[in-house]
Design a protein that fits this description.
It is a single chain. With 414 residues, the chain is an alpha+beta fold. It is 44% helix and 19% strand. The chain has 15 helices and eleven strands. The strands form two sheets. It has a six-stranded mixed sheet with strand order 1-2-6-3-5-4, sandwiched between helices. It has a five-stranded mixed sheet with strand order 7-11-8-10-9, sandwiched between helices. Helix 12 runs antiparallel to helix 14. The radius of gyration is 23 Å and the shape is globular. It starts with 6 loop residues before the first strand and ends with a strand. 44% of the residues are buried.
Length: 414
């Protein structure tokens, strides 16, 4: 599908609206983005941002939970929401014929939820079970442990869902207060991609959000302090050992963010990556091994994960250490650079064939950098990267002694 710069309008009350018309489809993806996430929670309120997202679907001033569900599902629409460390997104995929109806319900859920005490209690039980499900998944758990390790004492180190203890302490008034503080016109972006009449959509959003007051968001985020490398290990009743190597990097506003993406592809993203070839294909030491980059506004993480047999953990750690130090010392090869650039370019272009991905580029781009992402500009920046650029970033990033290590070891005890 082609891509053109979206219509970008700021309504009188400061809500920003982005429209990306795609004439070759019969559906659309629409999202309400709110600049509020885990790192905006008050002290002692771990998990309340996610709690708001969940409970908003239970009741509005004019709709019960069952009516909300029927309004979406009776027209075949798919609705979902998610909370991140820095924003919350509520989105719907729907046939364009039903966009007006679906948009009205989605706006009601986001802007006009009613947080009854009884509804909060029901959602507390559901979220508690969600937390337990994550704790039963070692691959989920180790990333939460690792973020707590590398961002110790900072809101970025708190699991998005909170903990069973923190969720048990959240009251209805805490949920209401978080919504009142953060869900205002200065923090909201509405984005749509698909078959949409731009003028009709703008009129609808302006009508549905007319009661949302313009208010500037007060910046309260603080950058986490640098932590020295540490090692932690916990035991769980599991079959495998799980390893997470992690280090802090600069955030998505850094000029080196695309270099980090290239480095990540070479390190552990794909079958041809060094970690996959060394640990899995050549020696059969791991079924799952990969690296990933996670970027926030002012910092981020580069991480390596592997699930291995307990008896092989020392051997695997030594191999990860060797791969990191070799890249830090020698950089990468021209063939690896070419493959990484080709892989990142292909992923970006193929994402244009997904309406949800296109809508996300609009909303997330404004949330993170103040403007919707232009995928072709992103590709152009990636294609400029040289071996020298990657070598420079690798020297400062890949020295193994600067990485923290988190392990989950098998245990026969409960």
């Amino acid at each position: 599908m082609p891509w053109l710069p979206p219509t970008d309008i700021i309504l009188p009350n400061a809500i920003r609206v982005l429209c990306d018309p795609v004439s070759t489809v019969d559906s659309c993806a629409v999202g309400f983005w709110v600049r509020a996430g885990t790192r905006d929670e008050p002290r002692g309120g771990d998990g309340v941002a996610h709690f708001v997202e969940h409970t908003s679907f239970r009741r509005t001033g004019t709709r019960t939970m069952s009516k909300v569900s029927r309004d979406f599902e009776n027209v075949g629409a798919y609705v979902n929401a998610y909370t991140t460390k820095e924003e919350t997104c509520y989105y719907v995929r729907t046939l364009s014929d039903h966009l007006e109806r679906v948009l009205e319900t989605l706006a009601d859920v986001v802007l006009n939820p009613v947080f009854h005490d009884a509804d909060v209690e029901k959602e507390r039980s559901i979220i508690t079970e969600e937390i337990k499900s994550y704790e039963d998944e070692a691959e989920e758990l180790i990333f939460d442990l690792g973020e707590g390790q590398i961002f110790d004492g900072h809101p970025l180190g708190v699991p998005i869902v909170g903990t069973t203890k923190s969720v048990a302490a959240i009251k209805a008034e805490n949920v209401r207060a978080f919504h009142a503080k953060h869900y205002h016109a200065g923090s909201i972006v509405v984005a749509v991609s698909g078959k949409v009449d731009v003028d009709d959509f703008l009129r609808s959003v302006e009508r549905l959000t007319a009661g949302v007051q313009p208010r500037k968001r007060v910046a309260t985020r603080t950058t986490p302090k640098a932590q020295p490398p540490t090692k932690i290990s916990v035991s769980r009743g599991m079959q495998q050992a799980h390893i997470l190597w992690q280090r802090r990097v600069d955030g998505y506003l850094s000029k080196d963010k695309f270099c980090l993406q290239v480095l990540n592809v070479v390190l552990g993203d794909g079958m041809s990556s060094r970690l996959n070839v060394r640990l899995r294909e050549s020696r059969g030491l791991a079924y799952s091994v990969y690296s990933q980059v996670q970027l926030f506004s002012d910092c981020g993480t580069l991480a390596i994960y592997a699930g291995v047999d307990e008896g092989k953990i020392d051997r695997v750690n030594n191999m990860i250490r060797d791969v990191l130090d070799q890249i830090a010392r020698d950089g990468i090869r021209q063939s690896e650079l070419k493959r990484a650039i080709t892989q990142l370019r292909a992923g970006k272009l193929m994402s244009l064939e997904s309406l949800t991905a296109r809508m996300t580029m609009l909303g997330k781009g404004v949330m993170e950098e103040g403007a919707p992402e232009n995928p072709y500009e992103t590709i152009a920046e990636i294609e400029k990267i040289t071996l020298q650029d990657v070598a420079r970033v690798a020297r400062s990033t890949c020295k193994s002694k600067t990485w923290s290590i988190c392990s989950i070891m098998p245990s026969t005890e409960e």
